[in-house]
Amino acid sequence: MTPYPDSDPAAGPLPIGEGGSQDAPGSRQETSPTSPDSVKPPSDQPGGSPHPPATASGSAATATSLVELALSELQERRASLLAEIAGLEQQRDRIRQEIAAHAIGQSELIANRVKGFQAYLVGALQDLAAAAEQAELVVAPVVVQPSPLDQAATAAETVAAPAVAGQFSQDEDLIRGALAGYGGQPDFYADPWKLRRTLEPAGAALLEEWFLNQGGRGAQPSGGSRNRNVLVAAAAIAVLGELYGDRFQTLVLAGQPERLGEWRRGLQDCLGLGREDFGPTSGIVLFERAEALIERADRLEERGELPFIVVDAGEAAVAAPVLQFPLWLAFAATPGEIASEEDLY
């Protein structure tokens, strides 16, 4: 039998179990065990696709990009909000300037009105408290039958009072002297109910006309402002005080609390009065309504006292019942005063 060309006769057959079984010709060759040196990574194999390892650097880069995107959006929103806030602040400053420009022109007028109303309200509350303290809670009715002598004396006083109050011809010298004295230097330390301010010549002429020609009953043109009218009325009160002492009471009619406040402050300054001099039982009483003033004047006449009625220039007309009293002075407003009063109230 002829040996295989590749076989070595001297080598003999391969041992079974160590090198593997010897296959017959034509059979498939058994795969030999793979040695460590023969194993190659997939990247070295031709035609193989690489698989990059999952590392921490990739995830960190993604997170950084997201943070930068969110930060840019927040910065854009912040810039938008800052621009909107700046616009609102400009609008706020413009509104404040408009309010300030409008308020500056009216601040003095509003302050005067508030101050006048406050003075009137405080005085009215004090007057009310004083009247409540002096009021008699229980008054026992007393009926007295007057004697014929008392009735005759009362009738004589009633007839004589209007004559004395309505005619000042016998007191002409006293009136002219007092008015002339009021035109000199002001006496700031004069006694209460004496004129402490200087009376202008126009005011002195007005009072001379009112006392001597009108008999203390009539209207006179306004001096152009409430302060001048208050000064004229204060001079008239001072002259009447020289003539009648404390037997008369002044009743001032002004339809607005602010006007009454100005009258109160002006009379206090011109005559050196205090708050206790204004009230139902005091020398000067302030009224907003003509009805209440007329009722008060009637009560004064019933008690034998003399009411002196002063009507503010802001009143459109003098009530007819006022004309029956022996002493009244009404100030007739000028067209300029009427226009300013309409604008104010």
Structural write-up:
Helix content is 52%, strand content 8%. Helix 4 (201-213) crosses helix 5 (226-244). The model is unreliable at 1-51 and 155-166 (pLDDT under 50). It contains eight helices and five strands, in the order H-H-H-H-E-H-E-H-E-H-E-E-H. It has two domains: 61-128; 166-344, Rossmann fold (3-Layer(aba) Sandwich). The protein has a five-stranded parallel β-sheet with strand order 1-5-4-2-3, with helices on both faces. It is α/β, with parallel strands linked by helices and 345 residues long. The longest helix is centred in the first third of the chain and has 79 residues, at 56-134.
* Percent of residues in beta strands: 5-15%
Helix content: 40-55%
Largest beta sheet, briefly?
5 strands, parallel
Strand order of the largest sheet: 1-5-4-2-3
The overall average pLDDT, rounded, is: 77
How many domains, in number, for the residues? 2
| Low-pLDDT sequence parts | 1-51, 155-166
CATH hierarchy class name of the largest domain: Alpha Beta
Cα radius of gyration in angstroms:
57 Å
Shape: elongated
Number of helices: 8
In N-to-C order, the SSE pattern is HHHHEHEHEHEEH
Computed structural class: alpha/beta
Instruction: Tell me the span between the first and last alpha carbons.
Output: 151 Å
Topology-level CATH name of the largest domain: Rossmann fold
Tell me the number of strands.
5
* CATH homologous superfamily heading of the largest domain: P-loop containing nucleotide triphosphate hydrolases
What CATH architecture label of the largest domain applies?
Answer: 3-Layer(aba) Sandwich
